[in-house]
């Protein structure tokens, strides 16, 4: 794990990341409306043949969650996803501890999404949905207690 983080500070590590990001941008440019299809974007298929083998065989995404979503679903899919996040966030409240946890999970997700594809990892996705559910429940409990 330590080596992986250390490699992100090297030219090779950041260069590989830049190639993956560029692959996502290229896919969005070619398919801005429909994307490549849900689950069909593979960054390794969008890099030049001269890319390091680790990049060409990379089975992941673009190292940016929102860019990966746009590459797969186009801009309409990205807008829909962001609207979904806004709808979830609006149902959370900072007046309840569970709502604070949900908002914290959302902020963590957005920050991590800038440098990684957290939804590509199943355990993270499940934990995120659970945290959002707890946060929304806190918002509902706060609304019920205010109306009572």
Automatic annotation (TrEMBL):
Membrane topology of the entry: Multi-pass membrane protein
Subcellular location: Membrane
Lineage top rank: taxon: Bacteria
Keywords: Membrane, Transmembrane, Transmembrane helix
Pfam families linked to this entry: Wzy_C
Gene Ontology CC: membrane
Residue span, O-antigen ligase-related domain: 9-82
Primary location: membrane
Transmembrane residue ranges: 66-88, 94-115, 122-140
Cross-referenced PANTHER family: TEICHURONIC ACID BIOSYNTHESIS PROTEIN TUAE
Name of the featured protein: O-antigen ligase-related domain-containing protein
Phylogenetic classification of the source organism: Bacteria, Pseudomonadati, Myxococcota, Myxococcia, Myxococcales
């Amino acid at each position: 794990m330590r080596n992986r983080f250390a490699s992100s500070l090297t030219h090779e590590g950041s260069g590989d990341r830049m190639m993956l990001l560029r692959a996502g941008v290229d896919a969005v440019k070619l398919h801005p409306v429909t994307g490549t299809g849900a689950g069909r974007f593979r960054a390794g298929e969008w890099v030049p043949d001269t890319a390091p083998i680790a990049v060409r065989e990379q089975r992941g995404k673009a190292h940016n969650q929102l860019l990966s979503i746009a590459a797969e679903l186009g801009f309409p899919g990205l807008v829909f996803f962001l609207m979904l996040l806004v709808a979830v966030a609006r149902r959370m409240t900072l007046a309840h501890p569970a709502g604070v946890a949900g908002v914290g999970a959302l902020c963590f997700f957005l920050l991590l999404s800038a440098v990684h594809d957290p939804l590509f990892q199943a355990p993270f996705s499940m934990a995120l949905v659970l945290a959002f559910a707890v946060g929304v429940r806190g918002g509902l409990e706060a609304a019920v207690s205010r109306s009572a």
